[in-house]
Fold:
Amino acid sequence: MKEKCRGIKSSIWIMLAGLFLSCLFQFYNFGFINNKVQEYLVMLFGGSTASALVTLIIYSAEYQSCKISSLEEYWSSQFNLLQKFHSIKYFDFDVPMGLLQEYFSEKAHNIQADSLISQLPKYKGIPHDNTFRHESTALDKWCDFIDNDFIELKDKISPEEYKKLLIESVNRSAIEHLNNLEKIISDYCSISEISYAELEKEIGNIEFISGKKSWKKVYIDIHQPMKDELNKIKNISYHFKLYLNKESNNIPVVFHFLDEIQNTLFNIEIHDNETMTSKLVYNYFYDRMDRILEDFRSNIYNSTPEYKQRQCVYCTTHSKYNSINK
Structure:
């Protein structure tokens, strides 16, 4: 490509110089130059002009083909990368993140307390210290949070059975949250392994063939946002990998970083009426970048953009029936 660009520039200069000199010797009579020599120079520079023009036409056609090919290659690479973002699943914090963090911190504390107690000599009692004491504040909060889901059973069983039912439900839900968490952060870790080096090379080619102005628009609209989002995922995946590799068990930290990255990728719409509340989740980053990439693709071929209709990637609906009757 660089050779063709240099060939085009050289052909233009040779053509202009040949045309100028040919006209000069054709229409201006140099007294000190023989007429036959002057005619020869006219033919020489005219031939150079014609030859440069043919070369320019050939190189221009090849340049245009290479330019489109380079733009297509860049679009295809970014499109494929964007599909990776599209494949990311949404983690639904149906239980408030703060409560989840409290619960798993509390659970980790209780496990640590059991470990310390098991190491105490049999003849020694358990110290009256918070380090050795089981906590249940977060568990009780979670039970209160889901209480309304079991309200119909509350008057049919004893308070002890009802409390046991809530605790069992919380523990099952906690396991489900962890299983779902591991699947989702694994996707982030997979994406974090993607290299942006090839795209850096391709955007450099675009700068060379399209000029600074066109390159700057592509860089600002497409290249930098995609790179920034990929770097964010690379940064948070460090913490995800520590957890998945069992090098760290700080679940509250994992929840924090997951919530942080989800806020840059997804947006949530709440639809509320008298009987139910619906939560619709859209992959905002994907939808926005997909439209920008479609504009880029249509500009390559001078065609009309064909935008996709955005799709909901996650939806939940909660009935207000119980709370209304209550």
